[in-house]
Amino acid sequence: MKNMFKYIIGILSMFALLGCSSVPSGKYNTFEIQNKIIGNLSYLKECKADGIANINYNDFEIKTNFLLRKKDLKVRIDLFSGGILGLSPAPKAQIVLRDNFVNVFIPDQKRLTITRLIPADSLVNVQGIVGNYNVVENFGYYMTSPFNGVYYIFDKKFHLEVIQIRNIRIQLSKYKKNLPYHITVLKDKNEILTLEIDKWDFPRYTDNIFDFEVPANVQIEANELDLTIPIEIIEEE
Description:
By secondary structure, the chain is α+β, with helices and mostly antiparallel strands. The chain has one domain: outer membrane lipoprotein receptor (LolB), chain A (Clam), CATH 2.50.20. It has four helices and 14 strands. The chain has helices at 2-16, 30-40, 126-132, 231-236, and strands at residues 46-57, 60-71, 74-80, 91-98, 101-106, 111-118, 136-138, 141-147, 150-154, 160-165, 168-176, 179-187, 190-201, 219-226. The protein has a 14-stranded mixed sheet with strand order 7-8-9-10-11-12-13-1-2-3-4-5-6-14, covered by helices on one side. A hairpin with a 2-residue loop joins β10 and β11 (168-176). The longest helix is centred in the first third of the chain and has 15 residues, at 2-16. Mean pLDDT is 81; it is low at 18-25 and 233-237.
């Protein structure tokens, strides 16, 4: 169970974590396409989402509540072991991304994992990535690739549909008013996690909402994720 939860937390951290030549659309030019995509991503500026997480691991399915909060380049995801959101459920895990570090704290195990992200704007600043890297049109879809093995794919309505991070694929669907209500995570084409979002909200957050207290005597593991390393080098290691 500990290994399963650590495995799933690593995948969830990817949330907290997403140049090609420009090919203009027959209807829109590249500048218009980028602006439409950035406009549809405006909800990521400052938002809150809650719902049910379905975790699949070794033929077992586990359901738990989740709460996601984001402001600018700061992200926090809380998983709860029981209860109903808003009624003080017990925290199962806390994932916080800020200052280019992903902090994963599991209270039951007294374990803190710190991952440094390279480069600094790696996956969270999707709007910035779309603005800085050219968008390619491919069979009616739109795509940008800031790093080798990392792709953002947008549908014909300029909604973010797929985030591909090496062998991890994140699919966003069931859009209503430009907001996704279903997120699926696959690893090596196997579905491992779905997030069923019940509600989106857009409160104003202060930075201290992304702080959390870590008690003494915790186990600390530190590592880094460098997305600038070519895939070929990773496969040879």
